[in-house]
């Protein structure tokens, strides 16, 4: 079968304080907490999933809040920035909101004909908002508890990879079905002199940008742990696994992550890639209207709920103040 990915499925990052993480991504950025769970490889740590109103593939930013981990530093072999789509004309709103909430942001830049607003989250994670035209058949569903629909984040736009030797990774992206669509001079904090963009076939999370750099980094607070690409069905995932294995990499076997099934592989430059199925999805164990309301413990962890809950710090999900009908 012909193999290609529609684009990014999710991005998983490392945070510090869990309450600060939730406050920022829910209240300040206006994403919905669609799953409150634990790291399945380290169940003494939360795993938070922030997404659109329905947890649509291509919209979820997830975090491991490891409080005892050191501050990270973005460098070669990492996702250096994660970018989200926002509606055209909304960046004025976002700058005003960032001013109100004390968010550090930089001047806007133009990149491949689009306007980009760079900023950082409270852990120093580099993030961007990119203005795009939202099509009539847009698959994402905005969450509007804190941010109005005409400014709400609408899933991923892109990730940027910093790599010491981009060539093998660029060839891998082509074999994964992404197409090189352009190059331009790097701007902002990018240490390389040329940015190369690759595009997948889907409407959300389409782009992967590659920048050359030998700047050293370390994993920790404020860095990306891995980026996951959509392989919607088991058959497509198996075929993509064969592709990356044929390229000379060593992917894992399929691992059941409860809301999707995953294969992991560390690409040539050191970035951890995941291949993730679309299903069964975040509503497989919670009604849509109750996503993120309780701690969900996948499979074998449920039997150990009492001990796991005793190890986790208490957190509160921000709620918008009710609007007075007379206002």
UniProtKB/TrEMBL annotation:
Keywords: Dioxygenase, Oxidoreductase. CDD domains: PcpA_N_like. Residues 307-327 are annotated as: Disordered. One of its GO terms (molecular function) is dioxygenase activity. Residues 7-132, 155-278 form the VOC domain. Pfam families: Glyoxalase. PANTHER family: RING-CLEAVING DIOXYGENASE MHQE-RELATED. This is Ring-cleaving dioxygenase. It comes from Haloarcula saliterrae.
């Amino acid at each position: 079968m012909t193999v290609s990915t529609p684009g990014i499925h999710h991005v998983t990052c490392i945070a510090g304080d869990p309450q600060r993480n939730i406050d920022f991504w829910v209240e300040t950025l206006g994403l919905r907490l669609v799953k409150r769970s634990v790291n399945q490889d380290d169940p003494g740590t939360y795993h938070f999933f922030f997404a659109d109103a329905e947890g649509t593939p291509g919209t979820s930013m997830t975090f491991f809040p490891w409080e005892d981990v050191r501050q990270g530093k973005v460098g070669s072999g990492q996702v250096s920035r994660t970018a989200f789509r926002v509606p055209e004309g909304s960046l004025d709103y976002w700058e005003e909101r960032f001013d109100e909430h004390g968010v550090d942001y930089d001047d806007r830049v133009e990149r491949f004909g689009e306007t980009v607003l760079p900023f950082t989250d409270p852990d120093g994670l580099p993030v961007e908002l990119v203005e795009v035209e939202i099509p009539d058949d847009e698959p994402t569903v905005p969450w509007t508890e804190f941010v109005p629909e005409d400014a709400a984040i609408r899933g991923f736009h892109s990730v940027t990879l910093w790599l010491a030797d981009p060539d093998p990774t660029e060839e891998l992206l082509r074999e994964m079905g992404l197409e090189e669509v352009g190059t331009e001079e790097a701007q902002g904090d990018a240490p390389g002199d040329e940015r190369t963009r690759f595009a997948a076939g889907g409407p959300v999370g389409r782009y992967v940008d590659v920048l050359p750099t030998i700047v050293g980094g370390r994993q920790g607070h404020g860095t990306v742990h891995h980026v996951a690409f959509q392989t919607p069905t088991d058959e497509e995932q198996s075929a993509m696994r064969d592709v990356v294995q044929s390229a000379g990499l060593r992917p894992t076997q399929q691992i059941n992550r409860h809301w999707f099934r995953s294969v992991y592989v560390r690409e040539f430059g050191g970035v951890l890639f995941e291949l993730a199925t679309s299903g069964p999805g975040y509503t497989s164990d919670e009604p849509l209207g109750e996503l993120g309301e309780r701690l969900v413990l996948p499979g074998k962890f449920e039997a150990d709920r009492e001990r796991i809950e005793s190890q986790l710090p208490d957190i509160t999900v921000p709620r918008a103040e009710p609007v007075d009908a007379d206002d």
